[in-house]
Each structure stands twice: as C-alpha cells, then as structure tokens.
Amino acid sequence: MAIEIRNVEKTFGAFTALGGVSLDVRSGELLALLGPSGSGKTTLLRIIAGLDHADAGEVSFDGQDTRDRAARDRKVGFVFQHYALFRHMTVFDNVAFGLRVKKKAERPAEMDIRRRVDQLLTMVQLSHLATRYPSQLSGGQRQRVALARALAIEPKVLLLDEPFGALDAKVRKDLRKWLRHLHDDMHITSIFVTHDQEEALELADRVVVMNHGQIIQVGTPAEVYDHPADSFVFDFLGGVNRLNGVIEAGVARLDGKAVRVDGAVGADGPAVIYVRPHQVELGVAPAEGVPEGKWSARVSSLHAAGPVARLELDLAGRALEAQLSRDRLSDLALEVGSWCTVDFRHARVFPAKS
Ligand SMILES: Nc1ncnc2c1ncn2[C@@H]1O[C@H](COP(=O)(O)OP(=O)(O)OP(=O)(O)O)[C@@H](O)[C@H]1O
C-alpha cells in the first residue's frame, strides 16, 4: 500500500503542529519519522492512522482519499510505546483479540483464529509463552506481543510510535534487528516514529527528518547522514564537530587557513564549519612547524575500546572529536598529550546563527 500525504495541516489552538506536510510513502518500505520532541511526528502518524483529522490537506492510500474511512476500516496496525496489552488476557488472547472482535461476517472461524495466532506467535518467537499474562513478560517480550497483535488483522500499513522507547539499550538493539528481518519477510508498508537518530539510520529504508511541524529532508540513511540538507539535520543526526570560522572572499577559513568544503560556501561573514568525527584526518606531527594547509592539535583524551578509537583533541583551544580505526591509531602512535596534524576529508559550512 502506497500512502500519499498532501499539504497536511494541523493546529492545536494557536499552535501549528503540522504546517503543510507532503510525503510519499512507497509501498512496502520501512520509513522512519525522525525529529526532536514536539516536531509533529506523532501528530502525523495519528492522522495517517485516522485517529486524528487534519485541518487541511489529504491522505490517500493507493490513490484513494481516506477522509471518509474510519480508523478501523483503514487496515492499519499500531504498536505504541504505551499501548498496553490487555492485562487480564493471556498472550494468546491478546493476539487473537483483533480477529475475535471483527464483525461476524468478517470474523474467521475459531479454528482459523487459533491457527493464525499460533503462526504469529511462532514468528515473534513467543509460542512457549502463549499462556502467560503480560505482567509475566519482559518489556521486549511485551512489545513483540504488541507487534503480533497488530499483525493479526493482516494490516496493509503498520504504524509504530516509539515502539522500543521504554526498553533498555541492549533489548532495543535486538528488537531493531528483529523488526528489520520481520519487515524484510513481510514487506508491509511501515512507518515508525523515533527521536533516536541511530535507530532511524539503522532500521529504515528512508528517513524523514522533521522539525517544527515541517519535513526538512527525506532520504536514505546514507543520503541524510552524508548530505544533510541544513545545519539542523547535520546536528540532529549526531556526531558532529562545530568549529567557528569565517568566510572571506568566498573561501571558508579556520584560523586563517582555507578549509575545503562540500557544497555552497555562502556569503562572507562568520560561519560554522561542520565536520563529522570520522572525517577528521590525523597525521604525524613534523619535528617543526605545521604542514601547509593543515592544523595542529594535541590529544586531550583517548578511548580505544573496540575497533574504533575516539579521540578528543585540542585545536587552538577548541575541542575537536576524531574517530579512527585502532590500526590507524597504532600507526600514528598517538597518546594523551601527543601533538598531531589535523585535516578534514569532508566539511560543510553554514552561516553562524546571530
Ligand atoms: N491534543 C493536543 N492538544 C494540544 N497540543 C497538542 C496536542 N497533541 C499534540 N500537541 C502539540 O503538538 C506538538 C507536536 O506534537 P507531537 O506529539 O506530534 O510531537 P512529536 O514529534 O511526536 O514529539 P514526541 O517525540 O515528544 O512524542 C507538540 O508541541 C504538542 O505539545
């Protein structure tokens, strides 16, 4: 099921929660709505679900306007962070619920319901817990039950609002991988809301970055990470150094030296140079001076657990984070207090905010 969202607006009193949002969700894709708290992600999801109405604009499913279709007729499955399971029902009965409450004409026979629930519980790897109650499950298991329950009605669209928000980091990571596999098997058009950039980048086919009720950028994880549309997206996707520099005669400069930047440089004046830590290139400091076109920095801290080493450097009084492989670190023989040269493989520049 493809979803077309056209100029959707929503206000709450004087507050604009969505200011004219348009988006095409492709059939079978796993899409992340990513943005800070209050950016309008949940509001958009609720409008797609039919739980809320837009003040203006349209949402169509496969070209058909949904305005007159109630939530229950949209073939949408939901999983919400706080969408509690029915406490008095077993895991099995929770999953069966959506099928048992169907209108009589559409309701499958009890035997078919049982078969379907068994299949779903196998899929979410919870068959052995079918007779337990929600209070006897871990948080991760509960979310898997919630997902099985959402899938029971064979939705055409699956909507997930911070589905793993309340879980600890390890369980979150496991469930993420698991959801990705599940989606690859089932190919249900799925939209999930998150404010966790790592979750969006790792899990989604495409990421929609939102801020202040607007869509700022839509792209694959690599596109939004490597080519952020603006400084907000660059910042929000995390792991960025912001270095105060200047643009002079169309050239970005840091401490007087020219910085090669991707994309437009912009007008002359104060500017912020954005560099991801893995785009910082370190070199061995020469015995004297600093090589042409490079900067000099001193290692202030070093974390080298795992395959990647993270360094914090002091670049003329500014903190600069760098990331490099452990192998490269040992080639450079850097330690806390060492001097090194610094260059930037990729940098972007945006005007300094006044
Ligand atoms: N029913 C409502 N009445 C008034 N204001 C609302 C209502 N629902 C949402 N808002 C406001 O609209 C804005 C967008 O809310 P929304 O829940 O869509 O944000 P979000 O991006 O999902 O944030 P979060 O990550 O915190 O859930 C917020 O400022 C919120 O306070």
UniProtKB/TrEMBL annotation:
Transmembrane segments: none annotated. One of its GO terms (molecular function) is ABC-type sulfate transporter activity. The keyword Transferase does not apply. The keyword Transcription regulation does not apply. GO terms for cellular component: ATP-binding cassette (ABC) transporter complex. It holds the Pfam family TOBE_3. Keywords: ATP-binding, Cell membrane, Membrane, Nucleotide-binding, Sulfate transport, Translocase, Transport. Residues 3-237 form the ABC transporter domain. PROSITE patterns: ABC_TRANSPORTER_1 (PS00211), ABC_TRANSPORTER_2 (PS50893). PANTHER family: SPERMIDINE/PUTRESCINE IMPORT ATP-BINDING PROTEIN POTA, SPERMIDINE_PUTRESCINE IMPORT ATP-BINDING PROTEIN POTA. This is Sulfate ABC transporter ATP-binding protein. It comes from Nitrospirillum viridazoti CBAmc. The lineage of its organism: Bacteria, Pseudomonadati, Pseudomonadota, Alphaproteobacteria, Rhodospirillales.
